[in-house]
Amino acid sequence: MELVKARGRADLMKVWPLIYDCYLKEGFIEANPYGWWFTHHQLMTVNDVYLVEREGEVVFTVTAVWVGHPYRQNFPRAPEYQGAVELILLASKLASIATFRYLVKVCKDILSSGAKTILIEIVAEKAQFYKKLGFVHVATARQPHFALLKYPILMALDLPALLKRSKYLPFSLTHRIGPLDHLK
């Protein structure tokens, strides 16, 4: 199984049922007659949709959003997210360790493409998984998520800490990485 970027509309449409199934199971969305879930971010050419297929079925996907969003104002003292990439619409049928490995590959690809920070907005119950990947909590939303009625948290990849465990990231990235103080 290989991690690839979506190469067109057909690839994009293959990930939508997986996102739908995972998000419906988690209670993030309500059922719809199409069995798909997507956002406009996946249709923008500046963003990257990553996917893994097994025997013709998508078993992992995540979207990397390369631009800032107005909803960032939901977080207190929201910093400038210049050079930041946000991971959204993560869905996986794989075991946690396989999902973790593919997320590491996605993060390496994003960082090698010039991103300075990787962000993810999640419900607090999922924080432990992302802490294992190297993310740290940087802010809590001012308002609950419209569908979940929970307060999401914003996490950022702690690049300096990850570099100390450098088996995950190439050494050449160190020149672009500074402390996360600007995110607090």
Architecture overview:
The protein is an alpha+beta fold and 184 residues long. The chain has a single domain, classed as Gcn5-related N-acetyltransferase (GNAT) (Aminopeptidase, 3-Layer(aba) Sandwich), CATH 3.40.630.30. 26% of the residues lie in helices and 24% in strands. It contains four helices and seven strands. A seven-stranded mixed beta sheet has the order 1-2-3-4-5-7-6, sandwiched between helices. Strand 2 and strand 3 form a beta hairpin. The longest helix is centred in the first third of the chain and has 18 residues, at 9-26. The protein is globular and about 40 Å long.
Strand content: 15-25%
CATH C-level category: Alpha Beta
Widest beta sheet: strand line-up:
1-2-3-4-5-7-6
Helix share of residues? 25-40%
Looking at the chains present, what oligomeric state does this protein adopt? Answer: single chain
Number of strands: 7
The count of helical stretches stands at: 4
**What name does CATH use for the topology?**
Aminopeptidase
Mean pLDDT: 76
Order of helices and strands: EHEEEHEHEEH
Could you give me the name of the CATH homologous superfamily? Gcn5-related N-acetyltransferase (GNAT)
CATH architecture: 3-Layer(aba) Sandwich
- Biggest sheet character: 7 strands, mixed
Overall morphology: globular
Number of domains: 1
Q: What's the gyration radius in Å? A: 16 Å
Low-confidence stretches: 168-184
Q: Determine the N-to-C terminus distance.
A: 37 Å
Judged by helices, strands and strand pairing, the structural class is alpha+beta
